[in-house]
């Protein structure tokens, strides 16, 4: 890096979607010497550099398949960032001469093995103490409860997502059933047998005790906002419209420290490791200057 040049922090997410750096940044091994066929014999342009090494648009395009996103610009930026991380680590393993000292394990490529050893050497594995865990437990009581659960019955009036007319009719019928059940709640089981398109009709529409995440997300979101009794409106899902009765609600009990100790320890260890990895990568950026990533990131704004 040039003398006096201000340090630019590299916007790298080291841990994303639960993968380790080695898995995320190096699972898709690439070879700079093999860029694949070029249209009309021309090399792909390069606007991204790590030190003197160029990362071409062709490499970024190939990497994008591993970084699904809401927009192509976000996918391109995530791919570029992953390639920058990989190249920073590759150059550092080359500087330290790890290729001659590392023994790959299992089906590892040599480059993957070098990066694994590099991170083992440079990133200290810090296990939180019990006091650290107890402090976090005391400061975040809302995070440590058994799941809330509800006991639900329903009548499903089925309609495909793309059947506009069918869904309109299903909603209209659900509203009529709700109006009748408000006046005669004892008819719920009878309406289940006559109208429901769910296999649960054989059990009176019983879905039993549900915890968050056990049903489709859109149904889950709505039923966990309901109070005990007949829902005043139809609940929509990908399957159609539901007439829902909540028979009971149980709030999750507070979990004892011993029940969550290991979960807290794993979480805190991951957080510390992530911070140290970020700091380590920033240090590598000072040794191997990154150019062009800011412009790619700016396109996502």
How does this structure look, described?
- This protein is α+β, with helices and mostly antiparallel strands and 301 residues long.
- It is 44% helix and 14% strand.
- The protein has 10 helices and 8 strands.
- It has helices at 21-26, 57-63, 72-96, 110-122, 130-139, 164-183, 188-195, 217-223, 257-287, 293-298, and strands at residues 46-50, 53-56, 149-158, 206-211, 229-230, 235-237, 240-250, 290-291.
- Strands 3, 4, 5, 6 and 7 form a 5-stranded antiparallel beta sheet that branches. A 3-stranded antiparallel beta sheet has the order 2-1-8.
- Strand 1 and strand 2 form a beta hairpin.
- Helix 2 packs across helix 3 and helix 5 packs across helix 9 (257-287).
- Residues 1-40 have low confidence and may be disordered.
Which outline best applies? elongated
Q: Strand content of the residues, in percent? A: 5-15%
Helix percent reads 40-55%
**End-to-end C-alpha gap:** 27 Å
Order of helices and strands: HEEHHHHEHHEHEEEHEH
The total beta strand count reads 8
Mean pLDDT: 85
**Which consecutive residue ranges, at least 5 long each, have pLDDT under 50?**
1-40
Q: How many H/I helices?
A: 10
**Radius of gyration, rounded?**
28 Å
Category by helix and strand content: alpha+beta
Main pleated-sheet profile: 5 strands, antiparallel
Oligomerization state:
single chain
